[in-house]
Design brief:
Layout (H helix, E strand, L loop, with lengths): L2 E4 L7 E6 L3 E8 L6 E8 L15 E6 L19 E6 L5 H10 L4 E6 L10 H4 L6 E5 H10 L4 E6 L9 H20 L1 H5 L20 E2 L2 H49 L8 E4 L2 E4 H19 L7 H19 E2 L3 H21 L10 H7 L10 E5 L5 H5 L3 E5 L1 H20 L3 H24 L6 H18 L3 H6 L1 H9 L16
Parallel strand pairs: 5-6, 6-7, 7-8, 10-13
Antiparallel strand pairs: 1-2, 2-15, 3-4, 3-9, 4-8, 5-9, 11-12, 14-15
Helix pairs in contact: 4-8, 4-12, 4-13, 6-7, 6-8, 6-9, 6-10, 7-8, 8-12, 9-12, 9-14, 12-13, 12-14, 13-14
Length: 514
């Protein structure tokens, strides 16, 4: 099976898995009880076998199960024959070509090769397959056993390969999750300022002192350090992935459990009932918050234990990931638009460099981001994405769990600008900046998804989100005549408030106080 991964950075881009077209569907139906039917995965070589795209155009064959033999010699053909039947045989002992020739000579309509070691498309020289006209496909041996167990022996099979659909409704769910995360995180970031009367944009003001232990404000230095750490971490992951991936997993467990607690505790504390408390070493602890902390830790531990279980663990990863992003956006505050622009542009350059420039320096010609996102030579994946299974039925969804993915960075990085716009709105008693920047983020996401669908390639979302959010915020500030105040943020406020007025409120005009 050939996989193509269109991936960029571990968290700053949209990731979409796509699989090559050599996948198909084996539809098995009990011809005595047609209501009994099931679909299974098959793999074939499109150069030698051509399958119809729909079941309506697919030939129906009676299934002859002889997986106890490899069909490597004519004597392996059962006494009753296999004429016009789909014969299932075990892989091994001879080549695919030899099995196909014997099956075709015996009049078989199709051949299913059952494998216990994974699925690979039948291979060999092109000339070897020129005289083989029947479909030759690979299936899992456990699927054949499941057919007998659940559907019985009186079954017919159809082989077809539906076309790959680029658009999937999971993209809409990804979009809604992203909008929810940046909106809630951005709005929540401005709540302390709103409660303080909108007097400050940063934690440095007197009205924000009691929040200073919970919120962190960026400076030019911290922005540069943050981007530098991202670069160093990505390079280290490229060279030492199999070791550092577990460090990232551990950090995610701790950070996401804490973030989930912070998000839920803000809701729990609003409830006026069930406030049982006890004292432990001079500290008063609420029982409900203790239970909440235990729940959040348990959720992170369950995810860590079952993180490679594709069928359902993505739900836990999304819950933890959304909480992590919301907590990050509302906790790390940008004091002015200048730093927002600096951070977003640096990360956009970082994204473009490690995607498009690094292939010129790597030995295999792959970008460092693609290698890290794919998890080189490791089954472990970095837990830095929102994952939603593809919802439209296809051969890909039959053969593996397919996901539409969105990196945390695609929400966090623009979310910091949206959060700044929200706090600026609080200061000037407005809503225009927060709403406009959020809508610009939505438009950027829609365009990124549109390009994804049209080009059938994964797109670096920051390439669209950064220009849309920055330009929209700049235009709004310029049209309202607030560009200087918006650009300098809390620094502008400090400068304005530090100016000593020439005229006191209680003095008449013309009198200058000493």
């Amino acid at each position: 099976m050939r996989h193509r991964l269109y991936a960029r950075l571990h968290g700053l881009v949209i990731l979409i898995f796509q699989v090559s077209a050599d996948l198909g569907v084996l539809r098995v139906t009990n011809y005595v009880t047609p209501a009994l039917s099931s679909d299974y995965c098959l793999v074939y070589n499109s150069k030698w076998t051509h399958l119809p795209q729909t079941s309506n155009n697919a030939t129906s064959y009676v299934l002859k199960n002889i997986i106890y033999t490899g069909l490597c010699k004519n004597s392996d053909v059962p006494a009753g024959g296999i004429k016009d039947e789909a014969v299932a045989v075990m892989r091994g002992n001879c080549t695919f070509v030899e099995k196909g020739r014997i099956a075709q000579a015996a009049g078989a309509g199709a051949m299913l090769i059952a494998s216990e070691d994974g699925l690979v498309p039948p291979s060999g020289n092109q000339t070897d397959y020129d005289n083989i006209t029947i479909p030759v496909v690979m299936i899992k041996s456990r699927d054949i056993l499941d057919v007998e167990k659940t559907l019985g022996k009186n079954v017919r099979v159809q082989l077809f390969s539906p076309p790959v659909s680029v658009f999937d409704y999971s993209i809409l769910i990804i979009f809604l999750i992203a909008m929810f995360t940046v909106s809630v995180g951005g709005y929540w970031s401005g709540v302390p300022d709103e409660d303080a009367g909108g007097r400050s944009l940063s934690d440095s003001g007197n009205s924000e002192k009691k929040q200073s232990d919970k919120n962190v404000s960026f400076t030019v230095f911290t922005v540069l350090i943050f981007v530098a750490v991202c670069c160093v971490m990505l390079v280290l992951l490229y060279f030492f992935y199999k070791y550092l991936v577990y460090v990232v997993i551990a950090i995610f467990c701790l950070a996401s459990a804490l973030a989930l607690y912070n998000c839920l505790s803000a809701l729990v504390t609003k409830i006026t009932v069930g406030r049982c408390r006890f004292t432990f070493r001079t500290k008063v602890i609420e029982v409900r918050l203790l239970f909440l902390a235990t729940f959040c830790i348990a959720l992170a531990v369950i995810w860590a234990v079952f993180r490679n279980e594709e069928r359902w663990v993505w739900i836990l990863q999304n819950i933890l990931g959304i909480a992590f992003c919301i907590n990050f956006i509302k906790t790390l505050k940008m004091p002015n638009f200048k730093l927002c622009v600096l951070l977003l542009i640096l990360l956009l350059i970082y994204d473009v460099f490690f995607v498009f420039i690094t292939p010129f320096f790597t030995k295999n010609g792959q970008s460092i981001m693609i290698e890290v996102a794919a998890g080189p030579s490791s089954d472990e994946k970095l837990p830095v994405v929102i994952r939603v299974p593809r919802l439209m039925n296809s051969a890909q969804t039959q053969c593996t769990v397919m996901f539409s993915l969105l990196g945390f960075g695609d929400m966090i990085v623009p979310g910091l600008l949206i959060a700044y716009c929200r706090r600026f709105d609080v200061r000037i008693d407005s809503r225009i900046y927060f709403i406009s920047c959020t809508l610009a983020y939505a438009v950027g996401m829609v365009i990124a998804f549109t390009v994804l669908i049209l080009t059938k390639m994964g797109q670096p979302a920051l390439l669209y989100l950064v220009p849309f959010t920055i330009i929209t915020s700049t235009v709004i500030a310029w049209r309202r005549g607030e560009i200087k105040m918006f650009w300098k943020g809390s620094s502008y406020e400090v400068l304005e408030s530090s100016r000593k007025p020439l005229l006191q409120d209680d003095e008449p005009p013309g009198v200058i106080s000493e």
